[in-house]
Known about the structure:
44% of the residues lie in helices and 9% in strands. By secondary structure, it is of the alpha/beta class. The radius of gyration is 17 Å and the shape is globular. It starts with 13 loop residues before the first helix and ends with a helix.
Amino acid sequence: xxxxxxxxxxxxxxxxxxxxxxxxxxxxxxxxxxxxxxxxxxxxxxxxxxxxxxxxxxxxxxxxxxxxxxxxxxxxxxxxxxxxxxxxxxxxxxxxxxxxxxxxxxxxxxxxxxxxxxxxxxxxxxxxxxxxxxxxxxxxxxxxxxxxxxxxxxxxxxxxxxxxxxxxxxxxxxxxxxxxxxxxxxxxxxxxxxxxxxxxxxxxxxxxxxxxxxxxxxxxxx
Length: 222
């Protein structure tokens, strides 16, 4: 892939301003965009601003960016990332996940396939870097690094900000459900997803939690 010289004007573009203000990028400044290293060749974060992505590419040699945001309401920021990745010579992949519904089995398999084909080092990001980025990071550690799913530890309040007591906590409960089953039966994760996993039971819990106002109104998570 040919690396093109980054455009300096992107820092002042309307898309950049929209990402900073309307997409609450200014809030993510408070915690360094929730940027964390997962392994020697993978990282996770909230929605990067242009300066963030340039920094990650320069410092960590990022070769692929995977955005986990859907197109509904997020299309301007997805296009911003796609354009920036093109400028920087970085591969861009869009793999939407739902933050308030447990994943479908076919989505888990698709995530495994994507993780096996992309070039590393890679950055996985959603809007806030707490929930969808956490689930995808856990899948990366399990499928690529061979870490047992119940030991991936990517859906935690500290340091990632994942709140189990909110509707987005259903992603953490998805991992917990497998961990509870594995302790008793030792079933491999993907076998559990395809043969045992009760998605509808977890989905019924999706709206549960007393901290939805924190996630939805205060933190303005997607």
